[in-house]
Amino acid sequence: MKLSVPIYQLKRDAKRRARDEGIPLHEALDRVAVAEGYSGWSLLAARYAESSPAARLYGRLEPGEMVLVGARPGQGKTLLALELAVEAAKSGGQGMFFTLEYTDKDVLERLRAIGREPEELGSRFGFDCSDRISADYIIEKMAQAPRGTLVVVDYLQLLDQRRENPPLAEQVRALKAFAGERGLVIVFISQIDRSYDPTEKPYPDAGDIRLPNPVDLRLFSKTCFLNNGEISLQTAS
How many domains does the structure of the chain reveal? Predict the structure, then answer.
């Protein structure tokens, strides 16, 4: 599938058009899709989903793994992680999206941006926007999740924002142990430091992850970095 620019940029353009022209977002998305040669955004999103890199990435993930997805804002890391959860559901497994960043409405908007409705995924996909999200909260909620369930945590740097939560490093270790015990795949969305300069290297790397509180990055078996619509997947040695 060939688009004039990456899909995350098309979505951003549609948001700007909706704001500038005073039209609903769904109408702006449809206009953007027509310009790309599709009858509407739902068709464009469906075609994109069929050729999405999320499907290829999902095929390389194994039960018990911890994966980190990092990018600067606006590069599509949240959509990619959400697509991974959807891919798990589409494949007959379970996908769960825990977010401290977005509201229920935000998550639904992003699902529709990739051509999906929660109803079509049924009980195989869920999301949770509670302010109480932490390692303990996730472990409690996913205690009965079947092996192979893919869990997204949005995002790493917010897990210890509440003073009563354990330190970030302790929470990541707990989730690593839980993933291994239950055979889950846990995907963490991560911020990238503003010092990252794409003119110096094409993708961020582990050294660019913003860590206001220390975390042992060796706990992650794979890292996935995005920039300008391209993806770099690295496996820990």
Answer: 2
Looking at residue 1, its pLDDT comes to 66
First to last CA, the chain: 33
Measure the CA–CA gap between 237 and 227, rounded to whole angstroms: 23
Same domain, 182 and 171: yes
Do both 111 and 192 map to the same domain?
yes
Structural domain of residue 81, as residue ranges? 53-235
**Cβ-Cβ contacts under 8 Å for 77 (sequence gap 6 or more):** 69, 70, 71, 189, 190, 226
Residue 2 has pLDDT above 80, yes or no: no
pTM for the model: 0.81
Residue located via tokens 């949005």: 154
Residues 29 and 124 reside in one and the same domain:
no
Distance CA 125, CA 122 (A): 6
